[in-house]
Structure formats: C-alpha cells, structure tokens
TrEMBL record:
Residues 32-321 form the Transglycosylase SLT domain. The lineage of its organism: Bacteria, Pseudomonadati, Pseudomonadota, Alphaproteobacteria, Hyphomicrobiales. Pfam families: PG_binding_1, SLT_2. Residues 1-25 form the signal peptide. Gene3D superfamilies: 1.10.530.10, Bacterial muramidase, PGBD-like superfamily/PGBD. The keyword Ligase does not apply. GO terms for molecular function: peptidoglycan lytic transglycosylase activity. It comes from Martelella radicis. Keywords: Signal. Residues 341-396 form the Peptidoglycan binding-like domain. This is Lytic murein transglycosylase. SUPFAM superfamilies: Lysozyme-like, PGBD-like. InterPro entries: Lysozyme-like_dom_sf, MltB-like, MltB_2, Peptidoglycan-bd-like, PGBD-like_sf, PGBDSf, SLT_2. GO terms for biological process: peptidoglycan catabolic process.
Length: 397
C-alpha cells in the first residue's frame, strides 16, 4: 500500500507556517536524548501529561528501516485493470459483503450521522488493510520519533508525534507494542494520529477510540474523517459509462466543465441507467483510454483524491465501493497496449522538452503526464483520451 502521508505532507505544509516561530517545533537531529527532552517539553507545554510523554518517549529509538522506506518509496506503475482486478477480487467482494452484514448497526450509524454509505467505508477498509488483517508491522512510536528526529520533514511528523502522545494519554494507544505503516498511519483504515484525535468516534461504547482493535471505532472514525474531507451525502461518487467514439475529447478528464446531463446528451450512457444526478458537475475518466473502462466522476470523487493522490488507487477504490453498493463488474473493453517503463520515460522526456510539466521523469502516468498526452493528441488530431500508446510515442520521436 502506498503511504498516504503525502496527502498529510501537503496539508501540513500549509499549516505549519502558522507556527514557524515555535523553536520546539523546528528541532531535529543532533543529540537524540536532547531531542526527546525537547519533544517532552513541547508536549507538556501543549497541556499533555508528563507521564504520557514519558510512556511514548521512554525506550524510543531511531528506526533505520523507516528511514530506508522514506528514502525509497515505491512507485505506482500498475494499470487500472491490473490494480483494480487484483485488489477488488471476488473473494474480497464476498468478504466485504459479509462484513457489512456483521457490522450492520455500525454502517447504519455511519450513514445516518456522517452520510457515508457502507460500500464507501468497506472499500477503504478492504484496500487499506484487508479488513484489518494487514495493518503494518512498524512500531508506530518509533516510526514517528524517527521521522520527527530526521531533518527531512520534521514539521510534518512532529505534530503526529504529539497526537500520538495524546492518544496514549487517553488510553487509546500502547506505544511499546502497537504497530502500523512506516509513515505513522495506523488502525484498520490506516489514519494518522492527528486525524484520529480530531475525528475519533467511540463506536463500541467502551469509552476509548481504538482504531487498531475495534472495527466499529475504526469505521466510524473513518466515516467522520471522510465527511470532513467534503463528502456530500446522498450523491454518487463514480459511475461506469459506455462512451461513443465521437466526443469533445478536450472536455474529458478533470476540469472539463461538463455536467452529467451534458455528457448524457452527447451519447454517454450510464450502465446502471441512473440519470438522476444530471445537474451535477462531472469528469469523464478513461484510466486506460477510450477503448477501456470509462467512468463519470462526481464531486464526491474529490474526497478520494484527498485520501490518496494516486489516480489508479482512487479510481479503483471508488469503483470497488460501487460494487458493494450493487453495481456490476466493469466492462474491461479492449484497451490499446500501453507503454513499458522505459518507453514511458522516453515519452516524458520528449514531453518535457516540448515544454510540458510532467514532473519527475519516473515512468509513472501521473496527472501531469496524462494532461500533456491529451494536449499532444489534440495537436495530432487523434482522440485525446490521455492514454499513451507506442503509436503515439513513435509519432513524437
């Protein structure tokens, strides 16, 4: 699973400037004991107990394995069909349906209080930890201490360490034994400590928010968090469609400015037949081009992009959520062959030389590369679906 801390990095980068004057918040590196003393002093200054700080910091150590992961994060190069079929398997779908029945009262509460449907929560639960089975094996305390002590991004991780101390003070976290992802996400739906503190819900009524051990706590906390990201109750998030071969391709993708109704009038047909949300703005997404699966993304899809910025992940988990809500499996279509890793890097290099901002030359079909591909496709007079093919690469060489 790709770390979601990138989202937190972006958010926190905008917030920490408000506290730039805090000397304690800027401490990193140097003598480790002095660093820990500074963390404790800041925690106490924030109103947290000395004993909770000691419980977290006593015995803490720098984890080289965390540093290694931070400096060599995996890249996401699977196609939509590859990733969505692997992660949204029939076995997972059946397990998720059983979980919805098992925790029916929790899911009903999540929809009643936060407006988040069961399928949405279940898809995240499945994708993030396989329903709690794989929550990560990095000691969370040591991971956040390490990333706070390291001077790459201490302003991102130190607030998470403070939140972890607060969770410990509440009796919701055992710093000596509890584990999670390398970047500090923890629990059955993989959330960061600050988000757990802000949006935590005691789902099982035991007086605690324990997102690692309690499924009701984890699910309701996730639902509250999803609502905070702008979830619009009662509205769809993604809808599979069948598209004609002739469309205003310049209007596809994000930022096209078309409503669902406008797409319907152009011949785009929803597979479920539902046209009740014709007035909502949409984006027509084709993860593997116009010959592969196609979807209309509604405003709620933005929440998925807030959760994880990977286009393939977000489209896959959003689609999987519709399966739990009764949608059929998508039509795979017959996508044109894509590019190999080396070919994608060649394409990115060419596009960069032409003045397009594709970001790092990394072989990943990210948003910048997709936008650039659509632009050159329009210049060449071919359907601008954002899917790079060997034929396109040859045309640009």
């Amino acid at each position: 699973m790709i770390s979601r801390t990138i989202r937190a990095v972006v958010v926190a980068a905008g917030l920490t400037s408000l506290f730039a004057g805090s000397a304690a918040a800027q401490q990193c590196g140097g003598d480790f004991s002095r660093f820990l003393s500074g963390v404790k002093a800041e925690a106490v200054q924030r109103g947290l107990s000395s004993s909770a700080a000691d419980a977290v910091l006593s015995g803490a150590s720098v984890s080289q394995s965390v540093l290694n992961r931070d400096r060599a994060q995996g890249v996401f190069k699977q196609t939509f069909l590859e990733f969505s079929q692997r992660t949204g398997s029939a076995s997972r779908l059946n397990t998720g349906k059983r979980k919805i029945q098992q925790y029916a009262s929790t899911f009903n509460r999540a929809q009643r209080e936060f407006g988040v449907p069961p399928g949405v929560l279940t898809a995240f639960w499945a994708m993030e930890t396989d329903f709690g089975a794989v929550q990560g094996d990095f000691n969370t305390r040591n991971a956040l201490v390490t990333l706070s002590y390291d001077c790459r991004r201490p302003h991102i991780f130190r607030p998470q360490l403070m939140a972890l101390i607060e969770m410990t003070q509440h009796g919701d976290f055992d710093p000596a034994t509890e584990t999670g992802a390398w970047a500090g996400e923890l629990g059955q739906v993989q959330m960061l400590p600050e988000d757990i503190i802000r949006y935590g819900v005691d789902g099982d009524g035991d007086g605690h928010v324990r997102v690692k051990k309690s499924s009701p706590d984890a699910l309701l906390t996730a639902a509250n968090f999803i609502r905070s990201l702008g979830w619009r109750a009662g509205e769809p998030w993604i809808q599979e469609v069948v598209i004609p071969q002739d469309l205003p391709w310049d209007k596809t993708g994000f930022g096209g400015g078309m409503t669902a109704g406008q797409w319907f009038r152009l011949g785009v047909q929803p597979r479920d037949g539902n046209t009740r949300f014709s007035n909502l703005p949409t984006a027509l997404l084709m993860p593997q081009g116009r010959k592969g699966p196609a979807f209309l993304a509604y405003p709620n899809f933005n929440v998925y992009l807030e959760w994880n910025q990977s286009f393939i992940y977000t489209t896959s988990v959003a689609y999987f959520a519709t399966r739990f809500e009764g949608a059929p499996a998508y039509n795979k279509g017959n996508p044109e062959p894509g590019l190999s890793d080396s070919q994608m890097k060649q394409l990115q290099t060419i596009l960069s030389r032409k003045g397009f901002d594709v970001g790092k030359i990394d072989g990943i079909l990210g948003a910048g590369t997709r936008d650039a591909v659509r632009s050159v496709q329009m210049q060449l007079g071919i359907p601008a679906d954002g899917w790079p093919t060997p034929q396109l690469l040859r045309a640009l060489q």
